[in-house]
Amino acid sequence: QVQLVESGGGLVQPGGSLRLSCAASGSISSIYRMAWYRQAPGKQREVIAVITNGGTRNYVDSVKGRFTISRDNAKSTLYLQMNSLKPEDTAVYYCSANGAFWGQGTQVTVSS
Q1: Are 100 and 3 in contact (CB under 8 A)?
Q2: How do residues 40-92 score in pLDDT, each as one tens digit?
Q3: C-alpha pair distances (Å), 56 with each of 1, 14, 16, 53
Q4: Burial grade of 66 (CB within 10 A; 0-12, 13-18, 19 or more)
Q5: In sequence order, what E strands does the chain have?
């Protein structure tokens, strides 16, 4: 059982940056796939960034070049650096471990 807790969300102006963190209750070094998802109002949850324990990263096209996913296995923490934020990035952001464990989500609002 892995418990995940996201933090770092908030209100930011368009063009701004935020860094989300996802702290795990135990070691994540053996977790193959960690990912960030988001769910905007009225929309389905979508995966936006994935990182394997080998360091392979994949992104949805809408965030490529703006978002960076990383993991620190020693700190059992997953990160999402978000730059050049747009209003359409407004959503609740969730982290997931192997698609089986989920955090409670953190709200990101991009607005002037």
Answers
A1: no
A2: 999 999 999 999 999 999 999 999 999 999 999 999 999 999 999 999 999 99
A3: 24, 29, 26, 7
A4: middle
A5: 4-7, 10-12, 18-24, 33-39, 46-52, 57-59, 67-72, 77-82, 91-97, 101-102, 106-110
User: In the beta sheet, which residues pair with residue 68?
Assistant: 81
Q: Which residue has the tokens 């977790």?
A: 31
Give, in order, the Cα–Cα distances in Å from 22 to each of 16, 78, 92: 20, 5, 13
Is 101 in contact with 82 (CB distance < 8 Å)? no
Q: Which residues of 77-110 are buried (b: 16+ CB within 10 A; e: fewer)?
A: bbbbebeebeeebbbbbbbbbeeebbbebbebeb
**Cα–Cα distances in angstroms (integers) from residue 79 to residues 5, 9, 22, 64, 105, in the given order:** 11, 12, 6, 15, 13
Angle at 2 between CA 98 and CA 90, to 5 degrees: 65
